[in-house]
Design brief:
Elements (H helix, E strand, L loop, with lengths): L11 E5 L3 H13 L3 E5 L2 H10 L4 E5 L7 H10 L8 E5 L4 H9 L4 E4 L4 H34 L4 H22 L10 H18 L3 E8 L2 H8 L1 H18 L6 E6 L2 E7 L3 H17 L15 E8 L8 H16 L5 E3 L5 H7 L1
Parallel strand pairs: 1-2, 1-3, 3-4, 4-5, 9-10
Antiparallel strand pairs: 6-8, 6-9, 7-8
Helix pairs in contact: 2-3, 5-6, 8-9, 9-10
Length: 353
Amino acid sequence: MAMTALKHREFTVLVVDDVASNIKFLHHFLSGEGFNVQVAQDGEDCLQTVDYAPPDLILLDIMLPGVDGFEVSKRLKSNPKTAQIPIIFMTALSDMNSKIRGFDAGASDYITKPLEPREVLARISVHLKLHRLQQELAKSNRQLQHQLETTKVLKNKLIERSEALEEANRELERLVHLDGLTQVANRRRLDRYLEKEWPHLAKEKGYLSAILCDIDYFKLYNDTHGHIEGDECLKQVAKTIEWVVHRPADLVARYGGEEFIVLLPHTDLQGVLHVAENIRQAIQALQVPHSSSKVAPYVTVSMGVHTVIPTSHTDAASLLRPADRALYAAKKQGRNRVVVYDTSLESLFSASS
């Protein structure tokens, strides 16, 4: 069932945050979207609210006074009555350890502050849909089990239904790792990919290359053409990057806002430069009009590139941070270009600090 077919007023969202302005913003936004909204300002208040009137989904801040978000999530997931309620963490923490700790505590997803309304709505919609489907699947399983106990004639039907459920679960797994707008991988899929590939490549002593890609002057594009056209632009750029990056082991993900990331295992610096330039030229060839751009009359992209050989003593930050600095340098040097990270770029940051 498509989320657009579900009536938001059927769902209650509990917002847990100790910052009054955040609660006010989310209450106003979600109520405007038709949701029933509950609020709590600390961990104990949240636990009491859920015990009294369980919501359909919880937006949970990590940094709370008293009982923090990690502990609240653990307690809710340890209670059979509340274990199935989806929890989306809201946090300004962006390091991988905090993300992993959040998922270990039972979170379904996370949103990085500052909050972007369309992302908040998209993630809530995906997880409510996932929760609804899981409930329906669980109900179907219970019904099938009862039927199986009453008659052996239903054995073949059970097999068919089980296959359908497996297919549905595979589809749900795919949905939860996709960015709702662009249909490329999301940050959660990116984190899982790095968790798996980093130790694998460290063992093989293989290259891992990253391309950080940012649409030039995208805010001006939105201001000029509107957010609907902005969304279409993001979709076209994402589709074009996927068209260029076609190996099964490669990953294209939305990194945030107008930024995308490409990860290329077993690809050295010469190889990643070739891919990055192909992406830049392919997006330029789209000729998407951008009258507010200061570098071209159409949409262009800037890219930062870095290559490493992962080790057991390093983590993904050693790949992503230099790529981000190279992207910054590409913007400083005039945009619509590919810049490779080297240590000389550090002067840009020491000069600005």
